Amino acid sequence: MKRVKSILTIIVVCILFVSCQKETPQKVVEKTVLKANLLTANYGIGYFEQLKELQKNEYLKYYDNDGEEYAATYSQYLHRVTIPDLERSLRDIQKLEVNEDSKELISTSIELFEYCIDLYKKDYAEIAYMYDEGKTQQEINQLIKEFKAKSLEEFKERNLKLDEAAKIYAEKKGVKLKFV
Fold it and tell me: Where exactly are the structural domains of the chain?
């Protein structure tokens, strides 16, 4: 019995040790910057082109709470897959330990994610609905053009601010970071 208690104590201590470890600088960069690359890749028409490709290949699907797979409309995919994935990434960033070195990087990443999630919930939802309703590509392109006109500059500024914070943090921490 004593031996079992000792083994359990060791296991608990190991679990606590592992769970209390801080994120490495590399992990901080991965969570704040690399996940934000998805926002850039999916900005504007790029996101909807990806959805078209998924739909064409019959991969535009979502899973319900019971694990059942369903074919998705653009709106369903946006609300059941894309936005929850972005919100999960945001929560991962918010959980990072903030210190003097990481403060700017984490806060600019959070700001970019919050800004983009808002765009997805409002603007992207409107565009997705147009696709679902069978609107003409000309009507959809016009809405995307208006969306870009009102959001592109701010998106670029926030993204640039994140890149600058990432460069400073990576240099301080010795993390290799290459922008292409």
Answer: 23-173
> Which residue is associated with the tokens 């990576």?
170
CA distances for 86 relative to 35, 102, 112, angstroms: 9, 21, 11
58-73, pLDDT tens digit by residue?
999 999 989 999 999 9
pLDDT digits (tens, 9 = 90+) for 65-106: 899 999 999 999 999 999 999 999 999 999 999 999 999 999
The conformational region for residue 109 under phi > 0 = left, psi -120 to 50 = alpha, else beta, is alpha
Token pair for 83: 């936005």
Listed in sequence order, the residues at least 6 apart from 150 whose beta carbon sits closer than 8 Å to its beta carbon are none
Check residue 43 and report its DSSP letter: S
The reported pTM is 0.85
